[in-house]
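Dear support,

Our group has been running a series of protein-ligand predictions, and this particular one with adenosine monophosphate is the one our PI (initials K.S.) wants archived with full inputs and outputs. We had some confusion internally about which version of the output was final, so please treat the block below as the authoritative record. The input we submitted was:
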Amino acid sequence: MNLIFLGPPGAGKGTQAKITSKTYGILHISTGDIFRKAVADRTELGKQVKEIMERGDLVPDNLTISLVKERLTEDDVKQGYILDGFPRTVLQAEKLAEFQRIDAVINFRLSKEEIIRRLSGRRICSGCGAIYHITDYPPEVPGICDKCGEKLYHREDDKVEAVEKRLEVYNKQTEPLISFYRKRNLLYDIDSSINPENSEQQIMKILDEINK
Ligand code: AMP
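Confirmed final output from the archive:
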């Protein structure tokens, strides 16, 4: 099963991709995570994308497409995968269609106000990547991960100014993908405003239906 999780930043794609990946035994590929790791490891790629990411812009298509294309040639993708955060432009979607068969696109729907509230309160573990929220899912000890004890951080691009920018970029560049995939009968909407458990149930219902 090859899936795409599509939606604005903060809609819960990453959280749900981790869950779905475990439930169905398929790989979770997040382009955002790949870029963040490159920045943290100070690789050549990391140097190229650091500033772009911090201001909430998109990494150029050619760079992103070749990165994903290469990742999808590895053996572990044969069991199926979830693309989280890719494609994000029509060109990326067109190129992907040239070399991969996609079974379904899950479209996460959420209001702008809720996106800003979620992202400005989101905290990530610097050790294991676990995701928290300062009021919705706070850790037991503020600023410390319950699972591995490492420090939590606020992503530079989750700060209000960058979030506004990311939303603008999303509306302009990524939202057209909704009609792109709807036309191809691949799009399934979920309402991600309720809570993670509810989103998980909606996704499972769709995937179980597809797998019948
Ligand atoms: P994310 O964690 O998915 O919100 O991604 C964080 C940042 O990584 C984005 O704001 C972009 O700067 C970059 N990025 C991730 N995926 C893509 C993509 N498919 N195309 C271009 N830039 C991307």
